[in-house]
Specification:
heterodimer; A: about 260 residues; Sulfite Oxidase, Chain A, domain 2; 5-stranded mixed sheet; B: about 280 residues; alpha+beta; 4-stranded antiparallel sheet; two-stranded antiparallel sheet; 9 strands
Chain lengths: ~260, ~280
């Protein structure tokens, strides 16, 4: 047996369905964009879960995929800051980065700093990796630099240190009250990862200004915003709240998740 | 078993949907609503899809691009699929809003959360519901395996496959059987959603994670690269939206009150003549 549906009933219900499907604009969920909203705050805990699960699932030393040279099919697409305009940076740029120093400070046994020439003379690592932007695009390039881990060891990281804060030269945002400088941070797992390098070379050339000269940090298992350009100081800390708006990075301060592994 | 046809011409009231089926169904409905609208927000951050590991900026591997172009008549929304360009202003793709205040986004703000451009918030909400969605899939598979829902109602049997042509004719002529079990097309649709689309959209979502690509590099090989995975994620979304539309039309065509009742209380009024079984109500 079968139930018969009259054409009129069918048309009437279809029209009902159609009107129900038309959304009257979806701005009723715009409150989730407010970072003080408790619902949003609760939802952000999902990112903490993602961080913990990925740290459990992914071995601390597990490498990001490295590609063949034939996969380099284009230049590395610059994004974010591409020409910092702070006086400090413009001076360095004019001097061809001769006076540049990379400083490691904070919760370390001894503050250390290195010139670009010293960094270039350290054991080098080259890796052809895929850069994944939070926006959704990817770009494969060859990055050359020296591993961050041994440099941290030279400074002697104190046991209470939990994070590296990466301070950068670029004024990512200019406001009426002054420049906002880019900064990022990572846990020590990412800092000591074998592919985490202070890169000074890109596709067998000196790292260009648009891609972060003189030094860009690579954290290959995270999104592009976790790979700070124009890096000058690495500060070991046990708390990220004193920096910026307290979320551990310029983009995390603006609503992105801190971990950036997905 | 006897023919159950009382004076009013009603079939038996049967307990059709278990509590596991009903709860997971509504949790998914909420999750998929938010995942879709925040997914379109995330897509809008870079409204293009590619094939391969990377996105071609200096070479061509895009299969879809949504943007806006300037024309002598003013700006227009433009969508390019496999090299063919279409003016999609009328659909709100590439350009939407009013003539005085046009918005230049891939998908219009009416179908994104938030309605304005905010990738960070889109990601927070997307991943929150992503976790709930995946947890609910896990619960559903365990419960439905244990209570026999998968074996009984989801996996098509040879008889179901043989019954497809007949079921197609029945659907085309709007004759719906309200039996004790799902029909052949119903089984195939749900099988496709649970065993193909749900796993596919989760796995391609994970392939977009640089962290997961390090842990499970086979994901990249399985889908042919991160950008291909992103494209498959998008196509799977389109298929789920298609399923949703058909699902709603079928609910309305088959009797929305009865269908909704069965998904809320579990009890379903079968067609007159449906053989009675133990546990049925008149």
């Amino acid at each position: 047996m079968s139930a018969l549906i009259t054409r009129r009933n069918f048309l009437r219900s279809s029209a009902l369905a159609g009107s129900g499907l038309i959304l009257a604009g979806c701005d009723q969920f715009d409150f989730l964009g407010s970072r003080e909203n408790p619902v949003r705050h609760a939802m952000e805990q999902a990112n903490v879960l993602t961080y913990k699960v990925q740290r459990t699932l992914i071995g601390d030393q597990t490498l990001a995929r490295e590609y063949a040279a034939s996969e380099i099919r284009q230049g590395q697409r610059p994004n974010g800051s591409t020409a910092p305009s702070t006086p400090e940076y413009m001076f360095l740029q004019m001097q061809n980065f001769e006076p540049y120093r990379l400083t490691v400070k904070g919760m370390v046994e001894r503050e250390v700093s290195f010139s670009l020439a010293e960094l270039r003379n350290m054991p080098a690592r080259s890796q052809i990796t895929r850069h994944d932007c939070v926006e959704g695009w990817s770009c494969i390039a060859k990055w050359t630099g020296t591993a961050l881990g041994p440099i941290l060891d030279m400074a002697g990281v104190k046991p209470q240190a939990r994070f590296c804060v990466y301070h950068c030269y670029d004024n990512i945002q200019r406001t009426l009250t002054g420049d906002i400088l880019y900064y990022e941070s990572s846990d020590l797992v990412d800092a000591y990862h074998p592919q985490t390098i202070l890169s000074y070379g890109l596709n067998d050339q000196a790292l260009p200004v648009s891609n972060g000269a003189p030094i860009r940090l690579r954290i290959e298992r995270a999104l592009g915003y976790k790979q700070p350009k124009y890096l000058h100081t690495i500060e070991l800390v046990d708390d990220l709240s004193p920096f910026g708006r307290g979320k551990g990075g310029y983009w995390p301060d603006n609503g992105y998740d801190w971990y950036g592994g997905i | 078993m006897s023919e159950a046809k009382d004076a009013a011409g009603k079939g038996p009231l049967i307990y059709r949907q278990s509590i596991w089926t009903r709860v997971t169904h509504w949790v998914w409905a909420i999750c998929l609503f938010f995942l879709l609208l925040t997914g379109l927000q995330i897509f809008n951050a870079h409204p293009a899809l590619y094939i391969g590991q990377q996105s071609g900026f200096e070479f061509e591997n895009a299969i879809l691009e949504i943007g806006a172009v300037n024309t002598p008549e003013g700006p227009r929304g433009r969508t390019t699929i496999f090299g063919n360009s279409f003016d999609t202003t009328a659909l709100g793709l590439g350009m939407s809003g009013t003539a005085e205040r046009p918005a230049f986004t891939g998908f219009p703000g009416a179908v994104t959360i938030p309605s304005y451009r905010d990738l960070g918030t889109g990601r927070v909400v997307h991943f929150f519901f992503g976790w709930i969605f995946v947890a609910t899939i896990f619960i559903w598979f365990v419960a439905s395996f244990v209570n026999g829902h998968i074996r009984r109602d989801i996996v098509p049997r040879p008889a179901d496959i043989a019954g497809v042509p007949r079921d197609v004719v029945d659907h085309a002529t709007l004759r719906f059987k309200h039996g004790r079990h799902y029909g052949p097309l119903q089984k195939l649709a749900y099988f496709g959603v649970f065993f193909i689309l749900f796993p596919l959209i989760v796995a391609t979502g994970l392939t977009m994670s640089p962290g997961m690509d390090a842990a499970w590099p086979w994901l990249l090989d399985l889908f042919g690269g991160r950008q291909t995975a992103r494209t498959i994620h998008f196509i799977t979304m389109l298929l789920l939206v298609t399923f949703f539309i058909i699902h709603i039309v079928m609910v309305l065509a088959a009797g929305p009150i009865n269908e909704l009742r069965s998904m809320i209380t579990g009890w379903y009024r079968a067609s007159p003549g449906t053989p009675e079984a133990e546990g049925d109500k008149p």
